[in-house]
Design brief:
Elements (H helix, E strand, L loop, with lengths): L17 H24 L6 H28 L3 H22 L2 H11 L9 H16 L6 H31 L2 E3 L10 H13 L5 E3 L3 H10 L3 H12 L13 H17 L5 H6 L7 H34 L9 H13 L3 H5 L4 H16 L2 E4 L10 E6 L5 E10 L9 E6 L2 E3 L2 E3 L2 E8 L12 H18 L21 H7 L5 H4 L14 H9 L5 H5 L1
Parallel strand pairs: 5-9
Antiparallel strand pairs: 1-2, 3-4, 4-5, 6-9, 7-8
Helix pairs in contact: 1-2, 1-3, 2-3, 3-6, 4-5, 6-10, 8-13, 12-13, 16-17
């Protein structure tokens, strides 16, 4: 059986191959289109059970299968998988564009909304109907036929351009490597970073040290390398990725121009003045002017603090580091030196107290204490040997949800940190489908026999993504389209994640998730106090 067509349990990642993608997607798309036709051809009055539920069932299968393909494309990219993904992306985009313009389905939702049956629906179901009506309008369902056709073409082009943009960025990141043969050129860089760089060079059958543009390699160089030329080399390479200054085939400049042009055209077709208005339709913020006023006010208030931060940094860099012409590649380095001088600790020093096992245990303890849940390791097929899998249960042992944890950077994985849903909670007959989430970061992998070590910023990022995961996993909503993060305004979805970040600044939490990698001692309280004092260090600069 094609593993992408098996919905009986967890995704079968160990078995999924690029050649499985097209047959599975073609079969699921045919099934979805068949269900659409059956639903709109029913002569009876529209009801939830009559057309909404069957459509949710069909679309969920497509979403789960395509979601697995998209996830692998993000975390374990390969030429073969990329080819399969790009071959099927237009098909999936076409289906959703067609569905968003399907007049028969649009009429069904409008009739349900205006019927007496609407009032008998649950609050969640009513929200789904309202969201669907909005999305039909944003999908071009009310446009004349010729404009519908052009709108659909635009959606296809935008999907392809967005995928190409991400691929170019990953390929440009992976295309760069800087090798250093002389140890003297690496003064200031922590030993564990150098050990990782030496292993990277060895993997390429090269002597010395290899530095890349992936965060675990790039960021320590920018923060700690005394070699200004090395910092400048990596900085220029990083900020010019996928640009006109690199390989022409990876240049995203024309793609950005095309994306902006197509978004503008789509917005005008829908009757909006610009794409910003379209983007805000499903969000809490009401108008572009409201957003700009908010941002401008933040900028106005933060600017004096940012100017003061920069003045202090320039003075320190000139007087203490001999950097009289502070450049962009000096900022992180000089800032780290200033923080050490002012607060007597470095990121690298703090990092030694945050080994991965202790951090995870401490983070899980927070959730277990607040919500009365239990989190334990479990087994599941994974896409990479370093991926971990966990199960969440309540006090009675009832399974609440499960999640994958993919912590480490690698060349086949896109940058950043994010959470995505693998399976969404919903009621299916007399049972509840338990949710499953993907949590992804780009941290430094373990080196040698030592566990992975996290900076405090990386711990905050992990808590942030876990907050998104908890939003998805602990939902009590039983209707698919508004369960977990689904159907939530995108400017509201950050609340649970920001909430979780706060625990990284609570001593009673931090003390229990720190153990020095060498001594086993917990983080000293005076070091934590200095970290807390430095919490808003250069916050003005960071704001603007």
């Amino acid at each position: 059986m094609n593993p992408l067509l098996d919905f009986s349990g967890l995704p079968r990642f160990a078995e999924i191959r690029p050649e499985h993608v097209s047959p599975a997607i073609d079969e699921l798309l045919a099934h979805c289109r068949s269900v659409v036709e059956q639903c709109i051809s029913r002569p009876d009055d529209p009801t939830w059970a009559g057309f909404v539920a069957p459509m949710e069932d069909a679309n969920e299968k497509l979403s789960r299968a395509w979601g697995q393909v998209s996830h692998l494309h993000s975390v374990m990219d390969s030429p073969e998988l990329r080819e399969a993904y790009n071959a099927n992306l237009p098909k999936v985009t076409q289906y959703h564009a067609e569905l968003g313009q399907n007049e028969g389905m649009f009429r069904k939702f409008k009739a349900l909304r205006n019927s007496a049956a609407f009032d008998s629906l649950s609050r969640a179901q009513r929200k789904i109907v309202e969201n669907e009506l909005r999305d039909f309008r944003l999908g071009g369902a009310e446009l004349p036929d010729a404009e519908k056709k052009r709108f659909m073409e635009i959606q296809q082009e935008l999907a392809a351009l967005s995928a190409k943009f991400e691929e170019n960025l990953l390929d440009a990141t992976n295309a760069f490597a800087h090798f250093v043969d002389n140890r003297d050129e690496l003064a200031g860089i922590p030993d564990d970073v150098l050990e990782m760089a030496a292993e990277a060079a060895k993997s390429d059958n090269r002597p010395g040290w290899k530095f890349t543009l992936h965060m675990p390699s790039y960021l320590p160089v920018m923060q700690y390398a005394d070699n200004r030329s090395l910092r400048e080399t990596l900085y220029h390479a990083y900020v010019s990725r996928a640009s006109e200054f690199g390989e022409a085939r990876l240049d995203n400049t024309p793609l950005i121009a095309q994306i902006l042009k197509l978004r503008e055209e789509a917005a005008k077709l829908l009757g909006f003045n610009n794409y910003a208005e379209v983007s805000l339709e499903p969000k809490m913020a009401e108008t572009p002017a409201q957003v700009l006023d908010f941002l401008n006010e933040l900028g106005r208030r933060a600017k004096p603090y940012a100017e003061n931060d920069m003045a202090e940094l320039r003075e320190f860099a000139a007087s203490q580091l001999g950097l009289t012409d502070l450049q962009a590649w000096d900022i992180a380095y000089a800032s780290e030196k200033l923080r050490v001088a002012r607060y007597s600790f470095s990121d690298h020093e703090v990092k030694q107290y945050f080994p991965e096992p202790q951090v995870l245990a401490g983070m899980f303890k927070v959730v277990e204490t607040i919500y009365g849940l239990h989190i334990r390791p479990s087994q599941a097929p994974v896409w990479h040997e370093s991926v971990k899998f966990f199960e969440i249960t309540d006090h009675s042992g009832q399974k609440i949800g499960e999640f994958y944890l993919d912590l480490y950077a690698r060349p086949s994985k896109r940058g950043g940190a994010w959470m995505d849903d693998a399976v969404t909670r919903r009621r299916k007959g007399d049972s509840i489908q338990t949710p499953v989430a993907y949590l992804n970061c780009n941290d430094t992998a373990p080196i040698g026999n030592k566990p992975a070590l996290f900076t405090h910023d990386e711990v905050i990022t992990l808590f942030h993504e876990f907050g998104h995961g908890l939003h998805h996993l602990l939902t009590q909503v039983e209707d698919l389209s508004v369960s977990g993060i689904n159907g939530v305004e995108w400017d509201a979805v950050e609340l649970p994640s920001q909430f979780m970040e706060n625990f990284c600044w609570e001593w009673d939490v931090v003390r229990h998730m720190t153990r020095h990698v060498e001594t086993g001692k917990e983080l000293p309280k005076d070091l934590f106090d200095r970290m807390l004092a430095a919490k808003n260090f250069q916050s003005g600069m960071q704001m603007v």
